[in-house]
Amino acid sequence: MDTFHLSNQYFKCHAVGFYHHVRSLLSQTLILPRASVFFYKQRDDGNEVTPDQRDGEDEVVSLTWVMETNGTRCGEQILNYGPAEKVLIGGALTLLTLSTICGNLLVVISVCFVKKLRQPSNYLIVSLAMADLSVALAVMPFVSITDLIGGQWIFGQFFCNVFIAMDVMCCTASIMTLCVISIDRYLGITKPLTYPVRQNGCCMAKMIVSVWLLAASITLPPLFGWAQNINDGSVCLISQDLGYTVYSTAVAFYIPMSVMLFMYYRIYRAAKLSAAKHTITGFPREGESGETASRRQRKNQSIFKREQKAAATLGIVVGAFTFCWLPFFLVSTARPFVCGVECSCVPLWLERTLLWLGYANCLINPFIYAFFNRDLRTTYSNLLRCRYRNINRKLSAVGMHEALKLVERPDNTSPLCGKK
Length: 420
What we know:
Layout (H helix, E strand, L loop, with lengths): L1 H28 L5 E6 L19 E8 L15 H31 L9 H16 L1 H9 L8 H34 L10 H19 L10 E3 L2 E3 L4 H39 L9 H50 L8 H25 L1 H11 L6 H8 L1 H9 L4 E2 L3 E2 L1
Antiparallel strand pairs: 1-2, 3-4, 5-6
Helix pairs in contact: 2-3, 2-4, 2-9, 2-10, 3-5, 3-9, 5-6, 5-7, 5-8, 7-8, 8-9, 9-10
């Protein structure tokens, strides 16, 4: 019997050491809620003591944890920034927010006030800019304030739900609009004879409304009883319900990302095939006049350049989108499965870093499209230099040759919407 008691005491001692070692390792990677752990101690007479009678000797952890979280279900996580760090981080977040506002405002102003850009083919770009602008105006400032005061939510439970709804709605609309733009560009490349330069405005409007309605289908469930958001005092967190998490991340990110990657692959493949065809057909055919061969070659070059430009544009858009949003959604998807449905065990600094990386995509979008669109570049330049009167005249002169081509084009159908 003495040998049994000695073995039992030896096991308990090493179990306690193993527990503290594991918890020390976890605390370095995950911020765990503070917990009071039930222990028991083996008396010399073989009886066990209650948790209140433990004296700290030969303690063994029980399987029952009682969470001490100051009245909340989630452990309190605080971002401890010094004065210099607050100034640096606050300046960076303010610069990011203001740059996002200015960049997307330039897009909206350019399309609305410049005649050449005021066409249905740019409606999707305006919708994307409005979604990104909404993120910068209605979401980023509150996240900035929350981060600078340590990560604690101070705006109340009601506004927590409003804030989460705005965040999810605008970010989802931005992502889905990027997806629709990729489809639109793909159809424009693969169906050049039927792709209109001026698309049906009614159809574009329907597509935009559909995007925002689909974004609303992710936003509204927590407001109407399914998957309640978490708002316990200083914590404001989107619902961690497993079913809602899978649904929202799939519809808001994984499906659009898959579609965008597929569209980019198809456009890249079309551009590659066009390059091979351009090389083969570059030589005059038998019995073909020099003028006919030259005209055919110019046509092939035009198609090839358009496909190459579309592939480059969409490649950068997809690359920037994936780089900015993929880490955040990977963590968001795994979080409820790892941490449970009532709180987050992911370090707050990591969550905030990945969130701001996603928000940075709202800043990148207008500059990507401006870089590859000569008309937008010209408009940006004139607006920033306050040359408002000459914008339409310059764009008309630059695009006169293209405009004449469009007038001669007999077909004016849209691959997405059909004939006008």
